[in-house]
Amino acid sequence: MVKGRVLIIAGSDPSGGAGLEADQKVLAAHGCYAMTSTTALTVQNTKGVTGVHVIPSDFVGRQVEACLEDVGADVIKTGMLASAETIEVIAKLVTKFNVPTLVIDPVMVSTSGAQLLPHEAIAQLSQHLLPHTTILTPNIPEATLLLTQNGQQVNEIQSVSDVEAMGRKIQQLGPKWVLVKGGHMPFRKDLTVAKTDEEKEIVVDVLVGPEGSVLRVQSPYQKSTSTHGTGCSLASAIAARVAQGADMPTAVRGACRYIEAGIKTAPQLGSGNGPLDHFHSTYTLPFSPGYFVEYLLEHPAVRSVWDEFVYHPFVMALGNGTLPVESFKGYIVQDYLYLIHFSRANALAAYKAKSIGDISRSNEIVSHILHEMKLHINYCNSFGIAEPEIQATQELQACTAYTRYVLDVGQSEDWLALQMALAPCLLGYGAVAKMLHAHADTVRDGNTYWAWIENYNADDYVEAVRLGSELIEKNIRLQSPSRIEELIKIFVHATKMEIGFWEMFPYK
Ligand SMILES: Cc1ncc(COP(=O)(O)O)c(N)n1
Predict the structure, then answer these.
(1) 205 lines ligand 1 (CB under 6 A)
(2) Which intervals hold domain Pyridoxamine kinase/Phosphomethylpyrimidine kinase (predicted)?
(3) How far does residue 340's CA lie from ligand 1's centre (Å)?
(4) Rounded Cα distance, 357 and 160, in Å
């Protein structure tokens, strides 16, 4: 669900690791709505930048206006701004549209050393944008450049306090918050600057804010070349979290953790500085909401088992009327016994349900089963089997196995798992009756079993299938993909039990 509108003003990186492409992935991973205004096209990959094509600033401005005057933005995030003129245009529009939050990543030089903002434009950035900035996210080299360009002396950094002091000085230039990123200057365990690679243990990002507030975010130093676009991604993660309502320290801490995990799980692409994994914590459901049952029945683990159940020779013999009557008698008695336990399982589902609507739904199913059982008794009577005889019949193994499996899932797992164990019966009988109704080999006139087929194709049964599917659809979208796979296994197992049920009786 989309929450938070973010307009990114940045350059494009065709290799997808940095710039607009990275920003949009971050925003997508956070469930935000992303808009873009493109300041420059670049030619680059993990090995470096080999070309920059600057977009005319008035065109960049028109893109910004098109977004703001229509969709609007909760946050604007800027990256590579490419030219002094573009900075001026953006500053004017930010004031005109009064966008509440401005996240500025002062991109100047790429990791590979390419100039992404002309040196002279730092003056425009300081003069026009910093006073409107909610949070500025320089790394230490960028922070140093900003300060020296503004006539300030920068002392060599010896400790975290020096980084904090640097942030404070930049804050004087206008931003409400400044996050000085420590990735370029790892510390030892005792928080003094590491002098050798072996000593690099800890990275500290320092956030300074209003009224003297400070937040230090410490992360373990990761010896990794997968750092292309970390700055862009971090600023976008902050933008996303603020757009969704987080306060700044919470947004910054969460964004730092997001990047830390992105580097840890990086996909190792390219031969230079590779991209992060932006989707390390994103779940994608393999079906669209409302279409789980369709997905389920087409699932590779389900499809053949489902077809074996629905088109079972026992079923086909019901359809063409050739099923031996003794088999049908045996089946209907066992099915009666099955339905007793199927009712218990639905009563258990009522107990496990959390809303009165779902409880009453299970209750309705039990009433429907009672109606179905009366039909079974009528059938039995017509074959000369009286009710006491049915009651006295022993359950066959497949009947016991199936029903107790469903009840065990219900006892040991949650409500939805129980619904998945019940589903093959509910959906399956509907599917069987529908298939037989449409099948060319089905005989209607004079078929002893036609009434059975009609029962499961009748409006009330079709409605029960619809309601049952709706319940599953409503709840399944809230599960994780791995849980969905587990639930599908339960469905497959119960479907195999259905096949076992048909197999109890000779069909020729
Ligand atoms: C379009 C664009 N924007 C920003 C960066 C900086 O990212 P990095 O410092 O990781 O190279 C980049 N390389 N390209």
Answers:
(1) no
(2) 13-277
(3) 66
(4) 58
